[in-house]
Write a structure and sequence with these properties.
The protein is of the alpha+beta class. It has helices spanning about 10-25, 60-65, 110-115, 140-145, 165-175, 180-185; strands at about 50, 70-80, 90-100, 120, 135.
Amino acid sequence: MSDDGERGAPGKGLVQGLAVTLKTMTKRSITQQYPDVEPDLPPRSRGVIALLEENCTVCMLCARECPDWCIYIDSHKEEVVVPGAARARQRNVLDRFDIDFSLCMYCGICIEVCPFDALHWSPEFEYSETDILSLLHDKSRLGDWMRTVPPPPAHDVLGEPSKEEATAARKAAGPGAATAAKTARPAVRRNPPPEQER
């Protein structure tokens, strides 16, 4: 029965369904021939995680925040002698940085929490393996993915300048130059306050 209480003709729904089927059968199918034709991916799509090793300070934030615990990091401390300093300084040296992509769920938390931009998304997605143990990528293999990372999008000219650009502009202007804080005017009340009734 229909919503208004009338019965439709028997088999009407079947005929409508077959009409849709016949109409789609006559159209050419739109199938992307993936292995032969590269897919047209959107810009900055997520594929594999790449490592820029020289930016990594071994702060361990990515490994601690990873919900799957698929990032393994080992390091050692090295003393760096600074001329004129009272004592030698220490710095962390990255020995091992592995990501197990058989465990990774590609959430991107490690990339978001990295304060030094050592981790980036690469649009490459063709890294399947016949052995699951081969999905453990070491720092050299993660570093190889960096060549496929696209450059960041251009800064919006109408938007707010980045922190680095603002600092460079202040330094170029010199001391005592007008800044946004110095040129801002205090809010002025234009309407007089309403008179109180007596």
